Amino acid sequence: MHLKKLLSKMAFAMTNRQYYLYPKKPFTILVEGNIGSGKSLFLNHFKRYPSMKVFDEPIHAWRDCGGHNLLDLMYKDPEKWGFSLQSYIQLTMLEQHVKPIKEPIKFMERSIFSARHCFVEKLMKDGMLTQESAAVLDEWYKWIINNVDIPVDLVVYMRTSPEIVMQRIKERNRQEEKNITYDFIKDLHEIHDTWLCDTKTDTKKLPLVILDGNVDKNNMEQEFRKYDSYIMDCISTLS
To answer: What InterPro entries would the database entry show (predicted)?
Structure first.
């Protein structure tokens, strides 16, 4: 479909909240990147449109699993709590992947894929998971991927330098993130690059947009607008 025609349909849907122009299965976009890379700012850019459903990372659930703050516990003692948190992350991300929505476009902050390929990978690399625990997480991941329909149509990678990420982490001053080190962030940056930019990974076949996350936060809105048309063009496959 011609982009101009698609945008016209999008505008109609946004104005009238009518979604019958689109198929029932939403066009799903994963927004991936390091801690503090700018994912939330990108997602907030699209929250203004009623035709788009945005799922923020379910941090609230990780902070309150039966009254336990697994996120905080993991940062304090990853060797003890890494398996518990990643098990729960796998569940909560899967819930978001399969949750039905009425909107034609679905945005997700991170995914079950980055949970496995980045954060479980990091714990394994650091020796914070026993081989047995890593095997359990990996078997669950493979079963889910092979038995549950998890459609992904586009991956947006907020690629941000570790130096900028550390600066933003300090500025937002989240309790759980106070002990995060530069080396931790640098490793995660390299793991994300390997996962999303290496031709051997299982998500390389998906359309990928790499955004410059180093842009000053005050200018990010302008940067995001540059990709509106590209994303809408990708969504043209809906019709």
So the answer is: DCK/DGK, Deoxyribonucleoside_kinase, DNK_dom, P-loop_NTPase
Give residue 78's identity as a one-letter amino acid code: P
Work out the burial of residue 150: count CB atoms within 10 Å of its CB; fewer than 13 is exposed, 13-18 middle, 19 or more buried: middle
Domains annotated on the chain, with CATH:
3-238 (3.40.50.300)
Residues 3, 221: Cα–Cα separation, whole Å: 22
**Spatial separation of the C-alpha atoms in residues 183 and 133, rounded to whole Å:** 24
pLDDT digits (tens, 9 = 90+) for 171-182: 988 888 888 999
Residue 132 designated active-site? no
Task: Determine the Cα–Cα distance for residues 85 and 57; give it in Å rounded to an integer.
Answer: 14
Q: How far is CA 137 from each of CA 80, 99, 122, 158, 184, rounded to the nearest angstrom?
A: 15, 22, 13, 26, 21
Q: How far apart are CA 111 and CA 152, in angstroms?
A: 10
pLDDT digits (tens, 9 = 90+) for 60-103: 999 999 999 999 999 999 999 999 999 999 999 999 999 999 99
Choosing from 109, 132, 190, 223, which is the catalytic residue? 109
